[in-house]
Amino acid sequence: MTAIARPQVPVARVREEMGLAEQAAFLNSVLERQSAQNEQLALRYRHLASALSALGATSQALALGQPSDEAIRDTLYRCIDAAGISVGIVYLNDGDTGLRVHSTLGHRYEPGGEADKYFGHPEFLETACLSGASLRVPSAGVSPVAAADFLARVGFRNALIMPFAFMNARLGAVVLASNPT
Asked: Is 114 helix (H, G, I), strand (E, B) or coil?
């Protein structure tokens, strides 16, 4: 977001040159701008707090020697809980066979079901894994028809597919889905 540069006007000068109604309008615009900035800071704080919570849980699980499968499930739980998301599915790269479902939360997993078939769109997970960037569904980079089909199969109106990586190793993908409030 780029701010428009405005000359700084001392408050005393504002009072001298403006009438009462103009002063009130000016101060109202200043307060609205500050309120918008505070809302942005609060949102950023919530995102960072969620990330720290997930990282703390992961490091605690590893420090306690928790098996990696449990650590992944626990981290997924903490991430979706902190973010207020309905569904989380972790896909891990299984060597030669490609991605397989490792953990699910908020989604009824059935072997051979939609999750195993990547909700009909393996290209979404492949794109996130290969590019190393998250993919939002729906978004401008996703065909509206493919997005609608994927979301209908997932059963939610929004999804985020994130690569799951450590250092330069691409380990899999995480699918998060929810309905906006």
From this structure: coil
Of 165, 103, 163, 162, the C-alpha closest to 136 is 162
| Model pLDDT for residues 25-77, shown as the tens digit of each residue | 888 888 888 887 777 777 666 666 666 666 666 666 666 666 667 777 777 77
Helix-strand-coil percent breakdown of the chain, rounded to 5? 50, 20, 30
Distances (CA, A) of 60 to 57, 64, 80: 5, 6, 18
Q: Give yes or no for a cis peptide into 138 (omega within 30° of 0).
A: yes
Most distant pair of Cα atoms in the chain: their distance: 76
> What pLDDT is stored for residue 47 in this prediction?
61
What is the pTM assigned to this prediction? Answer: 0.62
Provide the 8-state DSSP code for 160: E
Residues 6 or more apart in contact with residue 172 via CB below 8 angstroms = 90, 91, 92, 93, 99, 102, 129, 163, 164
Which run of H or of E encompasses 70?
A: helix 68-83
